[in-house]
Design a protein that fits this description.
It contains seven helices and six strands, in the order βαβαβαββααβαα. It is of the alpha/beta class. The protein has two domains: 94 residues; 98 residues, no CATH class.
């Protein structure tokens, strides 16, 4: 059994020739004899283009099974929060899992989100949200709750999936778009208080320490 994982193609931002990329993508996965390919988010700035890309990629693969998550860029256009949570697409891997045959491994997927908990501004939700509305790429994304509340839903989904895996004595590989530990986000060299504040605000939108703690606890 062979799996492959990638993320952050940003095909539109990179002005890629999509038809050529799909052909190359399919050739590589087939050449490597990949059984399951997982994409962990950010293919396009439009979910409709993302889902169409992976549907076409799957159609060109004779044996590889495709699974994709949505990153924040994929969520900028062409999809609602409700669709992201309930999409009827066999390739879409949010809040789903697969068991790898003839092994004890289960792969769990969740788009993830963020709750400002990597930032020194964690407790100042209104200030971070105000900064986000002005500066951050996610500002057009519509959701029926604030970011910490959205992350709480993610944590509940992941916890339930981990409990089920534990009860069935499965080992887990977890796939998500956002960082679960701050150590995955190296601190850049900053030269002013203004730049430090910008970094802290940016860090607020990159993941959740609570997800990392949940994943760590599940291994005990």
């Amino acid at each position: 059994m062979k799996i492959a994982v990638s993320s952050d193609l940003h095909l539109d931002l990179n002005h890629a020739k999509v038809a050529e990329i799909i052909t190359q993508h399919a050739y590589y996965l087939t050449w490597q004899e990949i059984d399951h390919y997982f994409f962990a988010g950010d293919a396009f700035n439009d979910f409709e283009q993302t889902s169409a890309y992976f549907a076409e990629l799957q159609s060109q693969l004779p044996t590889t099974k495709v699974h994709y998550l949505a990153g924040n860029h994929d969520m900028l256009k062409g999809v609602t929060y409700e669709q992201l949570e309930n999409l009827d697409d066999d390739l879409y891997f949010h809040n789903r899992f697969i068991d790898i045959r003839q092994t004890n491994w289960r792969i769990i997927g969740n788009n993830g989100w963020y709750d400002y908990s990597f930032s020194t501004y964690e407790s100042n939700i209104k200030e971070v949200a105000k900064w986000k509305r002005v500066y951050w790429v996610d500002r057009p994304i519509m959701q029926p709750m604030n970011d910490p509340e959205r992350m709480a839903i993610v944590l509940h989904q992941v916890e339930e999936n981990l409990k089920q895996a534990h009860n069935q004595q499965k080992q887990v590989i977890f796939m998500t778009h956002f960082a679960p530990i701050r150590e995955a986000l190296p601190h850049p060299l900053v030269e002013s208080a203004r730049r430090e504040r910008m970094w802290e605000m940016t860090t607020a939108m990159l993941g959740s320490r609570h997800l990392g703690a949940l994943l760590a606890d599940s291994q005990k």
